[in-house]
Amino acid sequence: MSDFKYDIIKSIGTISESPKGWTRELNWISWNGREPKYDIRDWAPDHTKMGKGMTFTKEELLELRKLLTSSES
Amino acid sequence: MSDFKYDIIKSIGTISESPKGWTRELNWISWNGREPKYDIRDWAPDHTKMGKGMTFTKEELLELRKLLTSSES
């Protein structure tokens, strides 16, 4: 894997948990010391490994919230 | 890329748009004819290419909505 650092500034919550204990979480993460971004990602138990994920700006999360609350999705 | 089919059953909305016209969207997508899943993904203009994304179950989106509405994130 590439050489990068991350820092979970704020743990916002868990979205789901797999039978093997991986959790899908929403966090506020600083990557390589940069300004933190919101991050939805799968994590191994105790955060020993990270899986696939996406980062979001605050504006994107606000739009997403709007979509999730206005539709019956 | 691998050989797969997808069908956007329902377009729920756009989360953001990049300067190059790629959109980050929430859709309800059937992959390879399977039961549809919610999908957050980046798309090129006119959906000619798809970028990185994640799929979510309905339960996951409901949890995510809960996190987004209960925090001031």
UniProtKB/TrEMBL annotation, chains A, B:
GO molecular function, one term: DNA binding
Keyword hit for Magnesium: no
This protein's UniProt keywords: Aminoacyl-tRNA synthetase, Ligase
GO biological process: regulation of DNA-templated transcription
Domain Transcriptional coactivator p15 (PC4) C-terminal: 19-66
Domain of life assignment: Bacteria
Keyword Transmembrane: no
Name the UniProt record assigns to this protein: Seryl-tRNA synthetase
Organism: Alkalihalobacillus alcalophilus ATCC 27647 = CGMCC 1.3604
Source lineage: Bacteria, Bacillati, Bacillota, Bacilli, Bacillales
